[in-house]
Design brief:
By secondary structure, the protein is an all-alpha fold. The protein has helices at residues 11-30, 38-45, 49-55, 59-73, 88-101, 103-112, 118-136, 147-167, 174-191. The chain is built from nine helices and no strands. Helix 1 (11-30) crosses helix 2, helix 1 crosses helix 4 (59-73) and helix 8 (147-167) runs antiparallel to helix 9. The longest helix is centred in the last third of the chain and has 21 residues, at 147-167.
Length: 196
């Protein structure tokens, strides 16, 4: 990402970043990501293209910034404080709550952006990298399976259940989603030859 949003920003930069991200989300409600242009973003946000390029390389960079805002909002990085694989459920709960809170926006965006499109591929990649990074910090004990494989299994399972609950438009409560996750992470792995 071109702009380092972790550093302190002045009011102008904060307002500009907010305007661009808000514009991106509103455009995603109306059209597929593939058809959105930097020119459209700048016209709607009311900034010259030069200002856009001061902050972002391209529309993909802006999209990554939008994903980072979601990550910050749900305090995903706070999950690094957990020290047991069962605390994976805390991480999943935060993600579920965020998806649920923005379910209407997600539905509007999905109406124009199919799961197999660039938008969801970008989101899945971003989330995968961050969930994987957090799950790597969990104290997962792996006697049979190599640790990198176990970590990938945990993070991919979290994302799989979220996708099933929200992106496939299933109506599944948080409690039921937790049951699915618990079964997939704990019961299934212990029934098929011992714990990870």
């Amino acid at each position: 990402m071109k702009y380092d949003h972790t550093k302190k920003t002045n009011r102008f930069a904060a307002r500009t970043l907010k305007d661009f991200s808000t514009t991106m989300f509103s455009l995603l409600e109306e059209k597929p990501f593939e058809s959105i242009t930097v020119l459209q973003i700048c016209q709607i946000a009311n900034y010259p293209r030069a200002t856009f390029y001061n902050y972002f390389e391209d529309k993909y960079d802006l999209l990554e910034y939008c994903w980072s805002l979601i990550k910050d909002r749900i305090q995903l990085d706070d999950a690094v404080d957990v020290h047991h694989p069962h605390e994976t459920f805390e991480l999943f709960g935060r993600l579920y709550d965020c998806f649920k809170e923005h379910e209407k926006l997600l539905s509007k965006i999905m109406a124009n952006n199919p799961i197999e499109g660039e938008l969801f591929a970008s989101f899945t990649r971003y989330l995968s990298v961050n969930v994987l990074r957090i799950v790597e910090l969990l104290n997962i004990q792996s006697k049979i399976v190599p640790l990198p494989l176990a970590v990938s299994f945990y993070s991919n399972t979290i994302l799989l259940v979220l996708e099933y609950c929200f992106l496939e438009k299933k109506t599944i409560s948080k409690e039921q989603a937790m049951v699915y996750l618990r079964y997939l992470l704990i019961k299934e792995s212990t029934q098929k030859g011992g714990s990870l």
